[in-house]
Amino acid sequence: MLSWVYRSLLLGVCLLMLWAGMPDTAAARDLSKQPPQDQSIQLGTADSQLVFVPKDLTFRNGSLYRLHLSNPSQLKHYFTAKDFADAVWTRKLEVAGVEIKGQIREIELKPGASVEWQFIPLKSGVYSLVCTIPGHAEAGMLGHITISD
Ligand SMILES: [Cu+2]
């Protein structure tokens, strides 16, 4: 029969083993190290429709994403979602061999341009997306971005 001293010792050893296992767990919790999930959005269409395709995007809080933005149209467009931009941590924005790091507020895409935006959503909610070129939102260039728990 084990006395409480032995039981305490056993518990201590177990806790020590748990603690020894911690470095692995801590490394797995570095959210920026996870493989990115790909999603795409088009700003306008090749036949000049003033829409986002798709008009709604959904991301999961805490996951790393690589959002491919492209403009297949003949007009320039804006990806403006300021509240969404404030609700994510940007890992980088990559375009034609250039990486931009830091907070992103708004992205302008000229005809034929494309860019990759890597970010991790941090704050759940539904955010509005709009193209701020005069007349485009009125014509339907609007959408929503959802960050789910
Ligand atoms: Cu537009």
Q: Would you mind describing this structure in some detail?
A:
This is Biphenyl 2,3-dioxygenase. Residues 110-148 form the Sulfocyanin-like C-terminal domain. Keywords: Copper, Metal-binding. The chain has 149 residues and is an alpha+beta fold. The protein has two domains: 1-30; 34-148, Immunoglobulin-like, CATH 2.60.40. The protein is built from four helices and eleven strands; from the N terminus they run ααβββββαβββββαβ. It has a six-stranded mixed beta sheet. Strands 3-11-10 form a three-stranded mixed beta sheet. The longest helix is centred in the N-terminal third of the chain and has 17 residues, at 4-20. The mean pLDDT is 90. Residues 50, 77, 131, 133, 136, 141 line the site of copper (II) ion (CU). The site of copper (II) ion has 6 residues, from loops.
Task: Report the uncertain regions.
Answer: none
State the helical fraction. 10-25%
CATH topology-level name of the largest domain: Immunoglobulin-like
Secondary-structure element sequence? HHEEEEEHEEEEEHE
Strand order of the largest sheet: 2-1-4-9-6-7
Task: Please count the helical segments.
Answer: 4
Output the CATH homologous superfamily of the largest domain: Cupredoxins -  blue copper proteins
Distinct small-molecule ligands in the complex: copper (II) ion
- The best one-word shape is elongated
- Main β-sheet: number of strands, strand sense, barrel status? 6 strands, mixed
- The number of distinct structural domains comes to 2
Estimated share of beta-strand residues: 35-45%
Average pLDDT score: 90
Total number of strands: 11
* Alpha carbon gyration radius: 23 Å
CATH top level class name of the largest domain: Mainly Beta
Structural class: alpha+beta
CATH architecture of the largest domain: Sandwich
Distance between the termini: 49 Å
